[in-house]
Amino acid sequence: PDQLKAIRDVYKDMESDKPMDRLICGDVGFGKTEIAMRAAMKAVSAGKQVALLAPTTILAEQHYHNFRQYAQLMGINTALLTGGIPPSKKREIYHGLATGYINLVIGTHALFQEKVSFKKLGLVIIDEQHRFGVLQRAALREKAKGVIPDTLVMTATPIPRTLALTIYGDLDLSIIDEMPRGRKPIITKLFL
What we know:
The chain has helices at about 1-15, 30-45, 55-75, 85-100, 135-140, 160-165, and strands at about 20-25, 50-55, 80, 105, 120-125, 150-155, 170-175. By secondary structure, the protein is of the alpha/beta class. Strands 3-4-2-5-6-1-7 form a seven-stranded parallel sheet, with helices on both faces. The protein is globular, with a radius of gyration of 16 Å.
């Protein structure tokens, strides 16, 4: 139920005249990525491009493989942009983003590069947002070329500054505090 409510909140925000600034907060396995995926598909179906920023290459690759499965079924062109991508492939991705051929790009800090230019960036998704600085998040949003894109930030570990933004109205908040039915519980073990 919390996940469905969060999806409704996101859709309502995306359909309003005001740019979305929403924080999705929920533990690991509670469905934040599913919400982000639905938001991305909605943005692309409205003719906009989506950038998903992850703090590590491993997480970016994981998101890319998960998103690509659904995106391909819907005819959405996706790309993975990380520091380890060969220069020739990067140039191809830059061109695809600038022309609008690539609808959804998932990447790491490589998304901040000056060469990255979007034709119509409409949604910025930031995973583990506490791992990025204020200026880094702003730099990605500025790639929308004078338009303020919808922004969806996700975290399982909100820091006090992030929570303060929800209190002062800079971020709307959706909390997911229950795991979707049928999910196996997360087990954390320490081996010494």
